[in-house]
Specification:
The chain is about 40% helix and about 15% strand. With about 400 residues, it is α/β, with parallel strands linked by helices. The strands form three sheets. It has a five-stranded parallel sheet with strand order 2-3-4-1-5. A five-stranded mixed sheet has the order 8-9-10-11-12. Strand 2 (about 65-70), helix 4 and strand 3 form a beta-alpha-beta unit.
């Protein structure tokens, strides 16, 4: 490998690792990744803008003998991933951090070969669409792959607003709602701002331009990892997101999507599955396995992003979306009664939880009601508190 390329790569690595030291606050996944046994390589997947690059650089600054590069760097365009890492290993680097690994052709096979040679340990990031099980290189036994979810309300407050709010378990939030509300009442007015500019960590200046660019790259580039993407497929993907953004909870079912997009129901199902894998959409499944249609939610802050195109956001959908975005990695499913039967909204583990406005009563007999405002007692838990679970 050309020495000039290596020199440029190392100089860039040192510069961006120094830049990352300006960000002392870390995402929830940092400590978990540090604790992974050294036998395994470590992968981080997630949508654009959630902090994968900074997370890799923060790890690189801690573990020693580390070098960082992005797989889409023009410096290494003519080279394979294997050639680059092999050259870095020969120099003495023992921890190699590779950003955007999915952008390099043959990355999975190269990673397997690098692993088998046992010269370095690799940490990498990739899009939400990365699937090690079906990578064709049998990486699932060699790599621990973790998903970096969009920044929670708590993380957004800490990183963007310089708060220092700790994480609370779901059980503590439910059982200590009054105490936590007293402690954090000042946070309540900020949840709507989080829904507009949270989840991803772009600077406030140019936030929506950066988000628009990211959405387009996910659809135009990341989805191509799942299947061949045509112009119509791209258009339909945007239309699907727009359709969900305009809808009240559960209005965007497969049949309605198929009609809106003028595609078959099977194609509507495929689009929902693809965009969910890419991280832009959350397809929440029912608690009753006999009911197959998922309930569709957007990743924060996509509903408010699309609403800027000329429609009012459905308040109930915003509430549910906040809740689902924070509890989706828990044992979460939605409840749906028989025709004409009223039921609560969700089941999380052992608890039945209803989402409602500040004055909502307990006529549906859930265990708890997640409400707007700061009212507690009689099973009411202020909605914003659920943003502190990770």
């Amino acid at each position: 490998m050309d020495g000039r390329i290596l020199t440029s790569l190392i100089a860039t690595s040192r510069r961006v690792m120094a830049w990352a030291r300006k960000f002392p606050k870390k995402r929830f996944l940092f400590d978990e990744l540090k604790a992974i046994d050294e036998e395994y390589y470590v992968g981080v997947k997630g949508i654009r803008g959630v902090g994968k690059t900074v997370l890799l650089l923060q790890l690189a600054n801690e573990v020693g003998k580390s070098v960082y590069f992005s797989a889409d760097s023009t410096l290494i365009k003519p080279l394979s991933l294997y050639e680059v890492v092999k050259s870095l290993a020969e120099m003495g680097y023992r921890n190699v951090f590779i950003d955007e690994i999915h952008r390099k052709a043959g990355w999975a096979e190269d990673l397997k070969t690098i692993y088998d040679e046992h010269e370095v340990r690799v940490f990498f990031s990739g899009s939400s669409a990365i699937d090690l099980v079906h990578s064709g290189a049998d990486l699932s036994r060699r790599v621990v792959l973790k998903e970096l979810s969009p920044a929670s309300f708590r993380e957004w407050l800490n990183i963007k607003r310089d708060f220092d709010v700790p994480k609370y378990s779901l059980k503590k939030i439910l059982l200590r709602a009054f105490d936590l509300t007293e402690m954090y009442a000042e946070l309540h007015p900020l949840w709507r701002e989080y829904m507009r500019e949270g989840g991803v960590l772009y600077p406030k200046s140019g936030f929506y331009d950066a988000l628009d660019n990211s959405i387009r790259k996910v659809i135009l580039e990341d989805l191509s990892a799942l299947r061949e993407v045509s112009v119509k497929y791209e258009t339909d993907a945007f239309k699907l997101l727009y359709t969900v953004a305009k809808s009240a909870p559960f209005e965007a079912n497969y049949s309605r999507i198929a009609r809106a997009l003028e595609v078959s129901k099977n194609m509507a199902i495929r689009l929902v599955e693809d965009i969910s894998k890419a991280g832009l959409l959350i397809a929440l499944h029912p608690c009753d396995s006999g009911r197959k249609e998922p309930k569709l939610y957007l990743t924060v802050p996509l509903r408010e992003f699309f609403a800027r195109k000329g429609f009012d956001t459905h308040r109930g959908a915003l509430r549910e979306e906040f809740f689902v975005n924070h509890l989706r990695n828990f044992d979460l499913c939605y409840l749906k009664g028989k025709r004409g039967e009223k039921t609560a909204d969700f089941k999380v583990g052992e608890w039945i939880i209803e989402i409602g406005g500040e004055s909502k009563g307990r006529y549906q007999k859930p265990d708890y009601i997640a409400v707007d405002g700061l009212i507690t007692g009689k099973g009411r838990v202020p909605l914003f508190l659920f943003g502190l679970v990770y």
